[in-house]
Structure formats: structure tokens, C-alpha cells
Amino acid sequence: MNYNTSRLNVLSPDMSIADLKAEKLNKLTEIVSDVAGTLAKTVIERDKAGGTAKTERDLIRASGLLHISLPEEYGGWGLDWPEILGVVRTLAQTDSSLAHLLGFHYLQLATIDLYGSNAQRDELYQGTIKNNWFWGNALNSISASTTAVEQDGDYVLNGKKYYCSGAVDADMLLISAHFCDKLLVATAPTDREGITLNHDWDSFGQRQTDSGSVTITDLKIYQHEVLTSPGPAGSIRTTTRTSLTQLLLTNVYLGITESAFEQAKQYTLHQSKAWFASGVGHPGQDPYILRNYGNFWVQLQAAAQLVENAVDSFQHCWQLGNNITNSQRGKCAVDIATAKVFSTQTGLEICSKIFEVTGARATSGSQGIDRFWRNLRTHTLHDPIDYKLKELGDWALNEEFPEPGIYS
Amino acid sequence: MNYNTSRLNVLSPDMSIADLKAEKLNKLTEIVSDVAGTLAKTVIERDKAGGTAKTERDLIRASGLLHISLPEEYGGWGLDWPEILGVVRTLAQTDSSLAHLLGFHYLQLATIDLYGSNAQRDELYQGTIKNNWFWGNALNSISASTTAVEQDGDYVLNGKKYYCSGAVDADMLLISAHFCDKLLVATAPTDREGITLNHDWDSFGQRQTDSGSVTITDLKIYQHEVLTSPGPAGSIRTTTRTSLTQLLLTNVYLGITESAFEQAKQYTLHQSKAWFASGVGHPGQDPYILRNYGNFWVQLQAAAQLVENAVDSFQHCWQLGNNITNSQRGKCAVDIATAKVFSTQTGLEICSKIFEVTGARATSGSQGIDRFWRNLRTHTLHDPIDYKLKELGDWALNEEFPEPGIYS
Amino acid sequence: MNYNTSRLNVLSPDMSIADLKAEKLNKLTEIVSDVAGTLAKTVIERDKAGGTAKTERDLIRASGLLHISLPEEYGGWGLDWPEILGVVRTLAQTDSSLAHLLGFHYLQLATIDLYGSNAQRDELYQGTIKNNWFWGNALNSISASTTAVEQDGDYVLNGKKYYCSGAVDADMLLISAHFCDKLLVATAPTDREGITLNHDWDSFGQRQTDSGSVTITDLKIYQHEVLTSPGPAGSIRTTTRTSLTQLLLTNVYLGITESAFEQAKQYTLHQSKAWFASGVGHPGQDPYILRNYGNFWVQLQAAAQLVENAVDSFQHCWQLGNNITNSQRGKCAVDIATAKVFSTQTGLEICSKIFEVTGARATSGSQGIDRFWRNLRTHTLHDPIDYKLKELGDWALNEEFPEPGIYS
Amino acid sequence: MNYNTSRLNVLSPDMSIADLKAEKLNKLTEIVSDVAGTLAKTVIERDKAGGTAKTERDLIRASGLLHISLPEEYGGWGLDWPEILGVVRTLAQTDSSLAHLLGFHYLQLATIDLYGSNAQRDELYQGTIKNNWFWGNALNSISASTTAVEQDGDYVLNGKKYYCSGAVDADMLLISAHFCDKLLVATAPTDREGITLNHDWDSFGQRQTDSGSVTITDLKIYQHEVLTSPGPAGSIRTTTRTSLTQLLLTNVYLGITESAFEQAKQYTLHQSKAWFASGVGHPGQDPYILRNYGNFWVQLQAAAQLVENAVDSFQHCWQLGNNITNSQRGKCAVDIATAKVFSTQTGLEICSKIFEVTGARATSGSQGIDRFWRNLRTHTLHDPIDYKLKELGDWALNEEFPEPGIYS
């Protein structure tokens, strides 16, 4: 995949990050390549089938990829965000549903670091390594329907959570609920009584993300399971959870679009025929097809540069820890929003226009090339792009940073 | 459906075409409305299922719509192209697969008029009325693989035809084959020995058009079934078959896009919620949502004007009959290509961007809103838009008309 | 100028408007052609010079074009808006400043009909014919700085008016002022004491429109000069003045863009050289140049259709007179706004991209090809296009008509 | 100028390039800031006047900026391309004509290094330092009209050179001529007999670049003035002259666009009024204006990232010296072409759309805001963007590098 100049090589042994041993990266490259290779074999039929990718989730479990973001002190790989997000983007080039789920696993683990106490981090990170937990999401703070009441020092939760990506088949969940005026964020095993996974995700894209609903009925949450500093209302550092969420999505968007480009390229080179009026023998010599590929290239390069810049920006913020200032957080949020907007716009255009360089036969269901547009279209609707642009305009014109929140 | 200012009212009794009785139009309006209403009930699930829409094809058979393009002297309705294509566009607003098939039925009937002798027209038009034939397409002259040999004054055909929209469940077919240096075009009943319908259409869009392949094995074609003046190599008038094909497709494109707009509108009005950062109570007051609808409106109006202009232009050419000159044919081809290019570009953009005015929940499979992009994307790849633009540029700059051919 | 299919032929004798004699149209065609021919000779140097086009205004005076919108009963030509606006658009294809001024002359005359009494119309229309008055604009109701006080049954005005297109060298002016809570609209000869033309128009486009300011100092306005039913606050019919203003501008936009297209075409055909890497002998055979021309063509056709539709819509409203309903007015306003938005967007793109089909040498000052972008850019900023889209969105989504006002 | 995240800070003392002393960068920052400040005072009126910016060229001469690209061993500053091109981009943010001329000065000096012998480099670099030569361009190899004949071991040239940016008021010129089948490249003092500067640059943009023609009449060129390894036909390294030319232009494009953005921003903040229908008190709160600024921001960030990536890529190639391989050269050419295409497309859009965030009054000639579009439009036509896209498509699809030539 030579179209990308930099980050796709993140996993190659010649990368210049001094504290990562070449052997470690060699191993990671091999793992990701193996997993992607296996996912690729069934991705088109699984897109058609939807539902839970149980076999593939177990493949990820077995691969060791669930541990790469955890510190070495707990037995993790201790990778930085450029590498972690590089794994997500690379897997998204093959299977954007599974990449999404793995990315959200890393997000939940980061959330424990951001929101929890040291003791909670110790316990949960050790548990993750020891039990090879796959984490899922039931933390969607915009939905106000789930509430907690106190009971003997613990809590009882009731309500319904939506867009719980990866809750199905998760071992552990992050769950949020409204308690008095605060947002309570807690962890719980998925199989605890009171948690019902509804298996109701039916969107036309990202079909194996199980982003459906979870019903919470008299769910007991123990005091020690409540993360101590919950939610966007906390310190500046805790608000970078939103930044990470947005950045994960952006890497998935880019991976989808890179994949669309690559599949189109292979199709044009090996399956398309020259248009009868083109006067050339192979579509790879057609002036209009070349022009379209040139346009895709330019847009993809710009997207990749912006995404990689945002990843570096986030890593910088992450390393600042609790010392992060509002303006450092703000600048990073701007970088991420910039990359997200551009990747969205560019990605949708490329995923729709690739058919103009492959021709009519590439619409065959056996090729599954429509999944790129469906996946990206579904995944880019969490928060409206116009409001993202407004936020960026407020920065560009008024030099006001985005206000930390659930989408910014 | 108030978004369209003119042609959607084609079927209303106040239209000012003197030779059409108000009663006839009232009846047509009623029929189309009934058929569309029935199709609408199952269109989303049938899109998922694909395959042959046998029940719906029989509904069309029963409706009388198969006869509207035939002259009154044969028992048809004697409608002009603005009305016939108005029916196609209106049905495409509900079910673009069935609209495509009905449109191609009209195309085959027009082909008989263009290519056949008076005797052939008499026989086949009478047969169509009497037997309520639904015509299908096996006339794809670009594929060179089907050939004919002469045998005792008749012909025997062998080969395979692709993109045979509507051949499955058709009563009669138009079939083409290469015979010596000529293109032989003939009619035959679909159930004749030697015709095998392969039921292999599997594109991700226009899923109920049965646009798959037909295998021809030792198919006997009788001399009287061969249309006398076949193919684009014939007189100027015969070359307007291509114009009609392109114009039919263009009306389907427009209908798809109008439908996407309308479903998005109803969703925004009745199901979407205002974005929390918008400061308004209803999405219908959101400044960005309104701006997007404004853009959709402007593009749709321009598309509709161009399509209606092209329809009028074609009707004018049709009425000229054999007197049509090269420049009259050329001007009409330019009008149609202009409408086709614009409808394609605009339609793809609208069918993808509508989700930005409905929000994430509208990606639910139960809504089926992705089908508009899938149908349009699949259907707009017959001939590359860049070459269409080149042709139009040759006209705009060099004042050269498109050369009559299978796509121009 | 064969690129336009319909309205540019408005002045040809084969037009099918029954009540316009062929001789009259022959004469009009000849006049417009003569005037345009003369304007063309100096338009590039006059664009550089800016200032008042005194000679060219006198040419228009001498041509008889100042009378074509007036009813035959007063000695005018009695033309309808399609013809009047056809003249404006045709002249804008040569000189968009002078076309603007002539269009505004027609606007002031229409204003008298809309706002004034029958007696005022009689007097001022007769005066226009008899004295060959060229009317100018000092009626910009958004600026609140000019006020009127009553004095002995008449009025005294003080203040400053901006964007007074064509006030310089005008014989008569329409002037507005705030009087109590109302807008007072009156006519006055330009040379009356108290009117100072400031000759301060210095925008980079539409440089000979003299759209600068007018200082009003103790200007006496007699009772009989005050039009009886002033302003947008009046009846529905009076509010169509705004519609006409917007429609005039839109016709000028289209004329500018058509002219840009035509000059580029002539340049490509006769002065450009084929790009060395194109492999063709003439730029007219270059696949990318052809594609660009195809794009220009499609956009121009759509713009022309929308503009002509809006013109017909306005003519229909005009003929309704005082019977016009709010929804008829609203539909026409939507048609005009649609055409205006599209012409603006398309025009700016074409006027900037034409250089990509002419090449670097076409930037020579002697060609003046940059004036199209400068004229259109300057002229399309009266009211923000985003708010126009919002208005159209309110119609498209909520079925609310634009509220009559100074820009809608 | 906070809108740019990285390279605009190139001149600030905290940059992390170890081998550049903070003092040197402090001094450079000060010089560039002073020069830009002085240029800014007259840039609008000089744009109107056109012609040779003699005073400003002398200001640059006096500033020391003519020496920064020369190695320290000759008394130059020894800066790398990121810093040199940072100066060009920064000056282009104020005055894109002078930035262009200074950039071309650096280009001629680099050409001596690429094409000349060590002795020639010694002599001409020393002469440049000692005499403070400002170099100009008469090396336009595409024009075949200038030829050389041998005479007594030296050469005599005749012909006419076009697009000789900065030849007027240059102290020294690089001149090319066709000699037999080769391109002869030589240096000569501008005041040598036989060189006539025609002062005929009259494009509507980049008006003070003196990019007109030079007439060559019996011009004597001595043997030692002929650079030894002339032209694109030479080694791989010599072909990077084209890369540098394209990269210089790209930095000027970006500087122009950044400047357009900045002037628009200041205008919106301090001179625009809120639109009456916006319901906000200041245009900086208008949702549509904010959205537009957000779009500008995203595009500018992407452009800046691509340009900076291309600059780094070129610096890398430069440092490889004669060891550069074809694929290293090719990759750099792809990076530069990518940045150039994107900067062109994005820049033209921004420079035209800024008026939609400033409003109509910003078209005043006193603001000169149209110069951004004029400068960029003029400067982006050297080679057609469609062919650049084709080249990039050939890379993206077929993995073929651009063939080295006068534009690639």
C-alpha cells in the first residue's frame, strides 16, 4: 500500500521512536498483518450478514492486541497513541467494524486512566491483562434516560443506553448514569444481572459494531466500581476523553477511505476494461481515470497529513498529564476537529466517486465496494459537520477554543 | 409533493395539452397513484430481498400502464413522451427498479416503431394490447458475443447478453446479435427454446431490475421477427433510440433524487431532534439544516428544469418523424446529455448529504434511506460521466454534435 | 452565440409572442445589437478607467432603449418583462455596468407603477418619453440616515444615500427618506438644489455603475412628488419591487457569465496553443479542455433555465396586478431566489475557471478577462447567499414563503 | 498570525533545528518583519500601479536577504530550504510579487549549484555576496526562439525570452538558448550590450514581477559563462531545479491565501456589520460566517501541511546531492505536485469566497482585497492543473513517477 507516505509504515522496524524496540514492532506488524489477513477473507460476507462478529472478536482476543495500550508495568506493551491509533487505522483499512470495536476497547481503558483512581487503574488494568478482557461501551452521556439511586452505600441503575458499540460479547463495560446532578461512570462485568444486551443494531453501515441498545434493570453498581472523577465536568485532563473519541473515529474514517482507494485501484488495474471511446488499451491509461486518481491521491494525502498531525498533537497532550492547560487542550481539539471534518468530507466523496474509475461491473454484490460509503456515511453522523465547522470558525475568526463537551 | 414546480403535475387534470381529455388524465393519475401506493408499502423490504418483483410486475400488468405509450388506433392511450416519462419519473419517486422496468418496456415498444416495418408495428402493438405483454431487454449492442447465422431463410443465434434489464418475467424480448457486419435486432417470446434467463443480477442498487445475463443457445429467430432497419447505423430517426434510452435513465435519476429529498424532509420534520448546540427547539429551525435544504432545493430545481427541457426536446424530435435532421437530432442529444450529467452529479450529492439533515438515527435499516444512493450510484455508471462532459465540451467549444452511437 | 438555447433568441423575429409584431422585434434586435457593438469596442478600457460612462449613457439615450418598458399608450414600446430583461441580459453579455444602469432605469419606472397614483404614472411616464429621461437610484431603504420633515405641506430631506447606482448623469431620481415611521419615496430631478452626487464609487467591479453616495442637504420634495403608497410595507403588489430588483441582478449575473464563457471560447479557439503534453494539435481537441467546457456548458444551461423560469414567473405575477396573492408572490420569490443563488455560485466558478481553458497568456491586461470575476464578485454581495439558502430551505422544508422585505 | 500551526513560526527563536543559532534566527525574523512591514504600507497602491518595484527591490538588497541561501563559506547565511522558503512564504503573505522575485533569486543561485562547475559556483557566489547581486530570470526553456551560435570559442545569442520574472532591475541574469540539440544555460550581467528589457508585463496579477519579455540581439556569452551541465537532460540532481521552481511557486500560493484569510479576518472583526437578518450583534457570531471561516481554516491547514511536507521532502533530496536516486527524486516530485494542486484549488476558492464573510463594502478599491484572487489566478496558470492531476494519477494508480521535465 504505497499510497500513504508515512503512518502506514508505523509498524515497520525502521521507525525512529527510540524507546520502542525493533523486535516489539516487528512482532506487532506481524500480528496486525495476520489479523487483517484473516478478517479480509470474510469481511464482505460479514458486512452482508451484520450481527456480532464473535469469531473475529475472539481472534482479536487471541492476538494480544487487547493489551498494547496498557503500560508495561502491568504486562502491557506500553505503546504510544501514534502506534495504537496506527493499529486502529490499519485494521480499518480491512474491517472498519472490528477496528471501531478495538479502538473503543482502547478508549475504555484510557477512560479508566482519565477518570479513575490509581487503585482502580491497578485493579482494572491487571484484570484486563490477566483475564484478557475485551471492553465495551455503555457510556453515552448525552442520553439522560439512565439514572442511579443510592442504596446502602452502593448504587442501583435503571434505564436504557443507546449506541453501545461493542457491548455485545464484551467482558466488561463502562456504564454511565445520572445521579443527582452528576454523571456517574462505573465499570461492571457484562454478564451481571440487570444488563440486557438488545442486539438491535440495524444501521446500513458499520454493521458488525453492535452499536445497539442496552437495557439496564435494577443493576447493582458497587461503590468501588464508580470511577472517582467522572465526566466532562472534571479537570481539563478528563475532558481529553472526548478528544480521544473523536480521534479514534477520525482514524477509522481515514482507514475506510484508504481501503476504498486501494480496492478501486486493484479493480481498475486488474478488472476494469478501457472505455470504448477512450482510444487507449487499458483503463490505467485513460486521461480521465488518471485525473480522478490524481484527485483521490491529493485528497487522501491531505487527509492523512491532518490525521497524523492530530495524532501527534493528542500524544503530546496525553504526555502532559495533569499539567495540561486549557489552551493546550484547545489546540489539540482544533487539530482533531480539523482532521475529522476534512476526513469526513473527503472520504464521502472518494467512497462515492471510486465507481467512476472502476465502471458499472464493480457494483456487483460480490465486490462489496458499496460498503465503504455505507460504513463512512453511518459513522460520520455522530455530531453534525456544520457545527464542527462553526466551532472551527470560532477558533479561526475569534480565537476561541472549542468548549470541552461530549463532542468537542 | 410541492417541491417540484411543474412536471410532477403532469398527471393532474389542469394540464394544458389540448388533445388529452381531462378524464383520461384523471384516470392515469389515479392509476399511477394507486400503483405507487402499493409499491411503497414493500419497497424497502424488496430492496433488501432483491430478485424478481413478480407480484409488482403483475400489478403493473393489471394497471393498464403497459399500454399508455401505444397509439389509440391500436387501443393504446396515445400519450406523448412528456406524459409517458412523467409516469416513469413519478414511479421512480417510489420504486426506481420498477420504474426502470416500465420505462424499458416503453423503450422496446418505441424501438419497434423506430426499427420495424409498418406490418411489424401493427402485429406487435396489437399483440401487446391483446396479450398485455410486458417487454424486456436483451438488446445490448455493445457486447459482441452474440452472433447469428442464417439457416433456411431464418436465423440461429448463440451467445450471451448482459445487462438484460427486465428480461426475467418478460413476455417478449428485443434481442440483438451480430450477423456479418450488421446488427440484427429481433423480437421473440421469452419462453422460446434457446433463451435461458440466468437470474444473476447482484448489484447493490436497482436490485429488482433483474439486469443480469441471458444465455442464448441455438435460438431460432424467424425472418419476420427481424426488425427491418436495425441499429444505430440506420437513418437519423433510428438513432434517436439512444436518445430515448438516455432520457429514460435521466428521468429515473431525477425521480430517485426527488424521492430522497422527500423522505429526508419527512424525517427531519417528524423524526429528527434539534441538535443540542443549535439553540432551537426543532430541527426545522436549525440554520444549517435550513441552508442544506436550500441547497438541495436549488439543485433539484435546476435538475428538474433541465430534465423537462430535454423531455420536450425529445418529444419535438419524435414528432418530426423521418424528417428529423442531423442538427435537430444533435441538439436534442445535447439537451439530454446536459440533463443526464447534471442529474447524476446533483443526485449523488443529494442522496449522500441528506443524512446530514436527518441525523444518525436515519441510518437504521428500517428506513432504507441508503437505497437512494445505492440505486443512483449503480444506475449512473452505464457510460462514464467524463466522456459525456467531453462530448458536451465538443459541442460547447467546437460546435460539434455528439456522434450518434450506443450512448450518445 | 449558440450556447444558449432559448432566451438569447428573444429578440429574433421568429419568437412566438403573438402581440409583438415581427417588425418591432426586428427593430429592437437591431438597436440592441448596435448598442452592444459600440459598447464592446471600449469596454475593456472603460473598465480600467472606471467613472461615469457619459458617452455610453448618451448612446443608450439616443437608442430609444429607455422607452421599451413603457406602455404603448404613452408612446413606449409596451414590452413584457421577458423582452425587457432579455435586453438587460444581452447588454450584460457585453457591458455589465451599463446593463445594470439600464436595468435600474426600468426598475425605477416600474416603481412608479407599483407605488404611485395613476396621475403620477401619467405625468412621469409622459415626461420620460418626452424628455428622454434616464432614471437613477437614490432609493436604498436599508440605510436609515436620510430623514424627511414636513414643511408647509411639502417635505425637506437631509442625509446621505449609499449605493446610488446610476444617480450620476441621471435626469431623474427615485429618492427615499424616513418620515415618522414610514418610508417616503419620491421623485426629483437630479439637478435640484440639495442633491450632491459624490462620484465616490471605487469598487473593483461593476466600475462604471457609479454606485457611490449622494448627499442630501435641505432637499425640497413637493407633495405631488411623493409616491402615494410607498415601500415594502404596502400591498402585496408593491412588494414585488424587491422581486424585480433581484431578478434584474440575476439577469446581469447570467449575462456576465455567458460573456465570460464566450470570450474564453473565442480565446481557446483562436489564441490558445495546445499544451505540449496533450498530444493534440489544437487545444480544442484536448480532453481536459473539452471536459471543462462541458462542465461550463452544463452549469450555464441550468442557470439559463432557472433564470428564464424566474422571468416567466415574474411576468405572470406582474400581469396579476393588484389581484396577486401572497402565495403567488411567494412562489415567484422562490423562483427568483433559486435562480439568483444558482447563477451566483455557478457564475463565480466559471468566471474563475475559464483561465484553465485559455492558459496563462490570457491574463494579459489587454484581454481584460479578469473583469468578469471582478464584476460578478462585486455584484453578488448585496445580500449574503447563505441567508438566501436559508430562506429557500425554509420553503423547501417548512413550506414557508420568504417574508417580503428589502432583499426577499 | 495564529491560524498556522507550524511553519509560519519558522523564524521564531524556539525552533528546534539544532545547527541554527538562536541569534541568527532572531536576526532573520527581525529583518523579514521589517521588510514585510515596509512593503505592506504601499502594497495596495503598487498593485494598482504595476511596473518595477525599484524602491522595494532596493529595500530587499539592503536587508541582506539576498544572501541567506548562500553557504557560510562564501559569507552567506547557510540556511536550509525550510527557512529559505519560509522567508518566501512569509513575504508572500504581504507582497506576493516581491516574494516571487526573491524566490526566483534563490532559484537562480541554486541553479548555479545544480548546473555549474565548482569554479563557477565559487566565482558567482562570491560575486553575489560582494556585489549584492539581485538575480533575475531569462531561462525559460520551453520557448524555442532563442538560439546560440559559436564564435571564436564563445557564443552569440539572438531571440526573445518570455516570462522573464525579475529581469528588470536585476544585476545578473540566467539565460538559456538552444545550441545545436542542447540547451545552453549561461549567466550574464543584465546591462551587457544585446540585452533589451521590454518592460511589457501587463497581466492582471502579480503585477510587480516584471514577468515580461527580454529581447536578445547579438548577445555575446563567453565560454566561462556557460554552465557546464545544463538543463533537464542532465543528471537526476540537475532535474531537481524543476522541483524547486514548482515548490517556490507553491509557497507563494500558500502565502497569498494565508494573507487573504488574514485580511478577511481583520475586516470581519473590525469593519463588517452583522447582517440584519442574522439576529446577532456582531458578524463574528453569525453562524454562517463562522461556518465559512471553519471551512477556510480546514482547507488552509491541509494546504499548509502538504506544503510543509513537500518542503521537507525537497530539503531531504537536496541534501542527498549527487547520490539522489530516481525514486527519491520521484517521490519528492509527487509531494510537491500534491501540494501545488491542493494549494491552487484551495487558494482560488478561498480568495474568491472571502468576500462572503466581509460583505459588499470590502470590494472597495482602497482595500485591494481582489488582488489575492488576481495574483493567485495569474500565478497558477504556468502548467495546467489537469495535467498535474494526470501525473499524480499515474503515480497513484500505476506507480509511475512524474517524468522529469520543465514542469515536473
List the topology elements.
The structure is a homotetramer of 408-residue chains.
Chain A: H1 22-49, H2 54-63, H3 81-92, H4 96-115, H5 118-131, E1 135-138, E2 147-151, E3 154-161, E4 172-179, E5 182-189, E6 195-197, E7 214-221, H6 240-270, H7 287-320, H8 326-353, H9 355-358, H10 370-379, H11 385-398
Parallel strand pairs in A: 1-4
Antiparallel strand pairs in A: 2-3, 3-7, 4-5, 6-7
Folded structure, characterized:
4 copies of one chain form a homotetramer. With 408 residues, chain A is of the alpha+beta class. In chain A, 50% of the residues lie in helices and 11% in strands. The first copy, chain A, is built from 11 helices and 7 strands. Chain A has helices at 22-49, 54-63, 81-92, 96-115, 118-131, 240-270, 287-320, 326-353, 355-358, 370-379, 385-398; strands spanning 135-138, 147-151, 154-161, 172-179, 182-189, 195-197, 214-221. A 4-stranded antiparallel beta sheet of chain A has the order 2-3-7-6, with no helix packed on it. A 3-stranded mixed beta sheet of chain A has the order 1-4-5, with helices on one face. In chain A, a hairpin with a 2-residue loop joins strand 2 (147-151) and strand 3 (154-161). Chain A is globular. The first copy, chain A, starts with 21 loop residues before the first helix and ends in a 10-residue tail after the last helix. The model of chain A is unreliable at 1-15 (pLDDT under 50). Chain B binds chain D through residues 287-288, 291, and chain D through 287-288, 291.
